[in-house]
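User: Before I run my own analysis I want an independent prediction to cross-check against. Here's the chain; please return only the structure tokens and, at the end, one sentence I can use as a sanity check.
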Amino acid sequence: MFCRIAELHCKEVINVCTGFRLGYVSDAELDTKDGRVTALIVPGPYRFFGLLGHEDDFFLPWGCIERIGKDIILVNIPGECQRCKPDRKRKWF
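Assistant: Structure tokens:
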């Protein structure tokens, strides 16, 4: 199956360990040296109907991704998901 990075925006991310819906992919981190995707970035949940912004982003390393389907991406992250500030500091799982 081939997938464009633009098509990832339409896919919802779900943690198979907890069943928690993380949200939709907003960005991807690329390794330009090797030409491959290293992580997916999902924005955190909105605070107070989006008026106060959103919580920290979820950084999902490529190794945690179990399956990419037509409309869902399944990730395997045991325990509670860690978050990273929107300034893109890395905190890997």
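Sanity check: The chain has no helices and seven strands.
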